[in-house]
Amino acid sequence: MREIVACFKWVIDEAYIRRGPGGDLDLSAVNYKISDYDRNAIEEAVRLKEKCGGSITAVTVGVPEATRGIKDALSRGADRAVFIADALFAGLEPSQTASVLSEAIRAGTQFDLILCGEGSSDLYAQQVGPRLAEKLGIPCICYVQKLDVEGDLLTAERRVEEGVEVVEAKLPALVTVLPDINTPRIPGVKDTLTASKKPVVTVTAAELKSIAEARLKTTGITAFRMERSCERFGTDDKEITRFVGALRKKGVI
C-alpha cells in the first residue's frame, strides 16, 4: 500500500485575464484554478492508486481564501488534503514554497512517492519539486512523461533534449510530471459532493518553525505585444540578398 503525496498550486486562470490600458494586464475579474501541470500530478497519483492501491494526500501552500482549490483537488481523487494556509504565504518564491512544504510534510504526512507538476501555470520556475526533494533527502526525477511503480522500485521515462531517458529509483522519491503523462479527468457531481466529506488538515505559519514573510513582490505585468514590419521583398538575387541582410540585422540568423 503506497502513500502518495500530490502537491499543487492555486493560480490565476489565464482565460479571465484581460488587456488593460497601456498594455497592463487587468486582473480585476480573474478566477482561479489548480495549475494545469499540477492537475496532471494529481491525475497520475489517482491512476497509480487505482493500479497499485494506497492513498493520496493533496498538499498545497497558499492564502486562507484558496479553499476552493482544496475541494477541487479532493474531487479529483485525493483521499485527504493538507492546506498550509496563511496570509503571509501570498507571493512566496519557489525556495520558500519548498521550505514550507518540506516542513509540513515532515511534521505529519507519510509518503512513499511525491508527485509535482513540472512547473506552475503562473511562474513556471520549475524549482519547487527539485528543492523539495533536496530538503527531504530523497531522489528527484524531472520531465517525466511515463511512470510505473513495482514494489519499491520506480521506473520513469523522462524527456531530454536528445530523446527519452529511462531511469529507475528506489522509493521514497519525488517525480515532476509533464502534461504528456496523462489527460486529467473532469470531476463529476458525485465527486464534488464526496469531496466535502473528506478530511482536511490546516496548517498555519505559526505552527511552522522557520518560515519568513514572502519576499517576492510583483511590481507590474505587461501584456505581450507583437509588432510586424510588413517589409516586402522580391525574388531576384538582389532582393534575396537584401532579405538575408534584413534577417541578420534583426538577429534572426
Show the helix and strand layout:
Layout: E1 3-8, E2 10-12, E3 18-19, E4 25-26, E5 32-34, H1 36-52, E6 55-62, H2 67-75, E7 80-85, H3 94-108, E8 113-117, H4 128-136, E9 140-150, E10 153-160, E11 163-170, E12 173-177, H5 189-195, E13 200-203, H6 237-249
Parallel strand pairs: 1-6, 1-8, 6-7, 7-13, 8-12, 9-12
Antiparallel strand pairs: 2-5, 3-4, 9-10, 10-11
What series of H and E elements makes up the topology?
EEEEEHEHEHEHEEEEHEH
CATH T-level topology = Rossmann fold
Which CATH first-tier class would you pick? Alpha Beta
Distance linking N and C termini: 55 Å
Oligomer, anyone? single chain
Which overall shape is indicated by the principal axes computed on the Cα atoms?
Answer: globular
Which runs of at least 5 residues are low in confidence (pLDDT < 50)?
Answer: none
Q: CATH homologous superfamily? A: HUPs
Beta fraction? 25-35%
Biggest sheet record: 9 strands, mixed
Instruction: Tell me roughly what share of residues is in helical segments.
Output: 25-40%
Structural class call reads alpha/beta
The helix tally amounts to 6
- Got a strand count? 13
